[in-house]
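Notes, Module 5: Reading structure tokens.

Key idea: the token line is not a picture. It is a compressed description, and you learn to read it the same way you learned to read a sequence, by spotting repeated patterns. We will look at two proteins. The first is printed below with its tokens.
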Amino acid sequence: MLLSKAVEGYLLDISTSFSKQTVALYKCNLHLLCDFLHDPEMDTITPMQLTQFISHLRNEYKPKRLYESNAPLSPSAVDNYWKSIRSFFGWCNRTL
């Protein structure tokens, strides 16, 4: 199964119990992960790739903001990405 398809299922499932804001945040975060990894098959994703993604967010990623700021993501924003990834893969372990 492609990562993007698993993310769709996850977002549908959490939409019944998470706030709309959390679902929207996780959707953006996980779609960025899909783009970064080029939407691989789920069984090919490695812990090293996830570590590389978090490193990318901390060191290279330039967020698109409404105002002109080149500031990197804050540590709490990077932590939000990590939380969404943990939640998603926890769901995958229980569901897929």
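Here is the second protein, with the sequence above and the tokens below, as before.
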Amino acid sequence: MKWVSCVLLAALLWFQHSLWLGKGGWRDMGQLESGLQTQLQHNQQLAHRNRALAAEVQDLSRGEDAIAEIARVELGYIQDGEIYYRFVPR
């Protein structure tokens, strides 16, 4: 009977070790929760960027004003009848 108790105690200790320190245990759960918080913040930033891009696409599909603005800022587009001044630092 004594050896049965020893075997059961050893099995209990083994399972407790697996629960606390093994793969999928409490330590891994803490690491996963911190990784989850990081991923949620990253997803929130990406969602904000997606909303900005969707608004830009909507502006571009509505009219030529947004297209002209992008052409002016990024490509240096000048319309007919406009005068372009360039200021060069000394």
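Summary for the second protein:
- Residues 34 and 65 are 45 Å apart (CA to CA).
- The mean pLDDT is 84.
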